[in-house]
Amino acid sequence: MCSASYAVNNLPSGATIAWNITCHRAISGSSNQNTVNVIGTGNAAVLKAIITGPCIGNITLTKTIYSGAPTAGVLTAETGASWGVNRIHASIDNVQNATSYNWYLDGELRSVHGKTINFLVEDCNVEHTVEVEAVNSCGTSARFFRKVVSWCGY
């Protein structure tokens, strides 16, 4: 389970604040202070701060927050003249809050790397499985895969 603190600074004099959150999250401690601690897991949630004051009326601030293990994005794996003989190029769309990516070729961890990777293979016209996991401080996503056939230049 992950947690994070959020704050509204510089509240006008006499203003009050109330927080609420969606999607399997909880506010730890008081929900009427200018700082709130959110705990929980899952993909995305919306945190709201409702500020009420004599000179401002009601103002609602919203923030989408992410917690828990990331959800991997769209994985692309390709071969061909653009990448060279015996090479497989793979990339993944940016994953919110990911700090690294675990790249696998045929079930073997090959690299903890960024959003793109090039694998060198020593065969022709053989089907390979490229897999990736997105990693952040709360965990690791499910492993996503694509099948690709090695290219030999003809």
Structural descriptors:
elongated; 154 residues; three-stranded antiparallel sheet; 14 strands; mainly beta
Spatial separation of the terminal alpha carbons: 51 Å
**Bulk shape:** elongated
Classify the beta-strand content into a percent band. Answer: over 45%
Rg on CA atoms, Å: 23 Å
Q: Indicate the low-confidence ranges by residue numbers.
A: none
**Class per helix and strand makeup:** mainly beta
What is the number of helices? 0
- Written as H for each helix and E for each strand, in order along the chain, the element string is EEEEEEEEEEEEEE
Percent of residues in helices comes to under 10%
Total strand segments: 14
| Arithmetic mean pLDDT | 84
Q: Could you describe the largest sheet, including whether it forms a barrel?
A: 5 strands, antiparallel
InterPro entries: PKD_6
Protein name: PKD-like domain-containing protein
Pfam families: PKD_6
Q: Can you walk me through this structure?
A:
With 154 residues, this protein is mainly β. It is 0% helix and 60% strand. Strands 9, 10, 12, 13 and 14 form a 5-stranded antiparallel β-sheet that branches. The protein has a 3-stranded antiparallel β-sheet with strand order 1-4-3, with no helix packed on it. 20% of the residues are buried. This is PKD-like domain-containing protein. It holds the Pfam family PKD_6. InterPro entries: PKD_6 (IPR045829).
